[in-house]
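User: Sequence in, structure out. Go.
Assistant: Echoing your sequence, followed by the structure tokens.
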Amino acid sequence: MREVKRPARYCSERVFSGERNDTGGHMCGTPPSTLENGKWWCWRHTSAGQERQERISDERVDAYLTDSRRRAEVYAEQIRRYHLYPKLLKALEEIIEARDAYHGGDLTRAVDKARPIVKSAREKGAAK
């Protein structure tokens, strides 16, 4: 039976800090815990640890993209309402002017003008 050596002081992975002077990198400072392929590795640099880190990273990216899509949809709805507001306001003003002009009389022409605007607003709202 092969004798398992005592773990090394540091993980066997060479890491780079990304700084200008760190051209050769340095050994990972995390204490090793797993013996793989005859070398000692920390939890982060084993194959299972790297898969875990990738999974966590993928989950973060997916969450960010989902949130970005949601915010984009909310923004698009706000823009749609912003562009629709003047049309609805104009239709409402026409109805009010017609009511004031006829003192409660025939509003059909003003209402008929307003109907397509309201209908398009409802259709656009339902299309989202």
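User: And one key feature?
Assistant: The chain has a mean pLDDT of 78.
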